[in-house]
């Protein structure tokens, strides 16, 4: 069934289709509608889940971790300051190996107060071990919730699904809602090897000295590396059943491209429209969309960008004192690669500044005209 | 691709109007995208909503700067907001007004349509007399002038999605559809 | 009473994915930490429950009549019960193991 829905509701429907059993969340703009709809679904019996009202985002994730440790499928959603407050618990969810799925609406961090989109909130969680997936359409949001549980429960790691504030969260688009029985076939019941169980009692996350902590960190890294393959498998299987596939990355017309743009989130769709216009004008431009950010798709990035002459990375974020985060990651993936293209780094769209086809055109133009890569170009800075 | 921009005031239902139009387009097998001007909306404050229409999935995610048509839910906005900003030549300007199209003071190479959406909304008791909700009526005028979507699927959508008085809302849209005046 | 299985592993390959303890407290008894042992003189004890309230472990259980019993599997010998007992019915004795 095709239904018009906002990105926030696509998250809710994804959670419902995944038959989540526990939802613990605290409202924050621009995430509010995600949990509004889920609480309605719980209240009217459409969804058989326990909705836990909490007093903060820290508690929201803590409750989700508890629920997951008890062997139930848990969901939470937040944004910006709320995600920052969850930070301690994100480390916990990873260490405890609880496959909670967390929807994060990208919103800029204060001060000054802003409710508009920017990726610094989610990218600040880069080194926690939580998986991260960046979505560009409401359909992808709904589908990725389902895929996230599939992968997260296989490798026992939490997963953060990321969408742009307003550009997706409050934008209504058609979304195909799959049949529940097909989703059930795709996503089996969550059954962790250890859980809070009165018949087989264990302590979780207790004091572990240097004798074994090191090995447990190694296990997390092995799991997230294994997740690369699991994402590919989960996406292939999803494609077979539902007819939609997204990949860890998407290659749009990169094959013969002189300049490859690197994008994430909703900027991708706008870039695709622009690339079509530029191609009509005879310019060979391609796009590499990064969808799965953690685990980082190193092989795909090397494979696709290895064939480029010039790469222009567009970052709706900034790692102060370095560069855009995606720029940094791309560079790092290519350093030990046999072919290393020149890479330009562009900062665009911070705090919800609109990234339009004109913005993309300017990025392409500046990359075309330049011979020496620049790492930190602020596009559209008012001077 | 057709792009429409709606200007209204918080509480008049501009965002819902664009959403209902998108829903109706979906019924016709078309693709649509509806979104508000991203901000903190308050009753009475000027608000903007956007609508994209296409025959294929819409990937663009940026605001609409060069609309094909503009819808104005509140005539008092005419002096306050630059409603023709970026409007394409020959584009429709659909105004909620008791006046005739040639009495509307807008200069430029545009087509103007008017309909008394406020009067129609009050007639059918939609909203209150002090704050009538004019969105469903103005939809009727947009459908009549641009033909971007059929009146039948619009009326069906209004009946299904109106949070209250679905039949009255549908009748308001139908009456506006019939009473729209054009230049 | 809940059951518990002790998990034993050799190295990174056979250890559990999750940071679960080697086993639960049902298996990991903590009495070996104790060098002074509290003993209740039931002639002096008028079951008031104060020792039960103060025991931080908790290693003092209450019987149906309200009288306390010390769970020597988990008592770490901190002596708080002996300190708090208003009738001095609990005394600390040297452990002999």
From TrEMBL, chain A:
It holds the Pfam family POR_N. Residues 14-230 form the Pyruvate flavodoxin/ferredoxin oxidoreductase pyrimidine binding domain. Keywords: Oxidoreductase, Pyruvate. Residues 257-360 form the Pyruvate:ferredoxin oxidoreductase core domain. The keyword Oxidoreductase applies. GO terms for biological process: carboxylic acid metabolic process; response to oxidative stress. This is Pyruvate ferredoxin oxidoreductase. The gene is porA.
From TrEMBL, chain B:
It is an enzyme of class 1 (oxidoreductase). Residues 10-178 form the Pyruvate/ketoisovalerate oxidoreductase catalytic domain. Coiled coil: none annotated. It comes from candidate division WOR-3 bacterium JGI_Cruoil_03_44_89. It comes from the Bacteria. One of its GO terms (molecular function) is pyruvate synthase activity. Transmembrane segments: none annotated. This is Pyruvate ferredoxin oxidoreductase. Its EC number is 1.2.7.1, 1.2.7.7. Residues 160-183 are annotated as: Disordered. Keywords: Oxidoreductase, Pyruvate.
TrEMBL record, chain C:
One of its GO terms (molecular function) is 3-methyl-2-oxobutanoate dehydrogenase (ferredoxin) activity. Keywords: 4Fe-4S, Iron, Iron-sulfur, Metal-binding, Oxidoreductase, Repeat. Its cofactor is [4Fe-4S] cluster. SUPFAM superfamilies: 4Fe-4S ferredoxins. It holds the Pfam family Fer4_21. Its EC number is 1.2.7.7. This is 2-ketoisovalerate ferredoxin oxidoreductase. It is an enzyme of class 1 (oxidoreductase). PROSITE patterns: 4FE4S_FER_1, 4FE4S_FER_2. It comes from candidate division WOR-3 bacterium JGI_Cruoil_03_44_89. Residues 36-65, 66-95 form the 4Fe-4S ferredoxin-type domain. It comes from the Bacteria. InterPro entries: 4Fe4S_Fe-S-bd (IPR017896), 4Fe4S_Fe_S_CS (IPR017900), PorD_KorD (IPR011898).
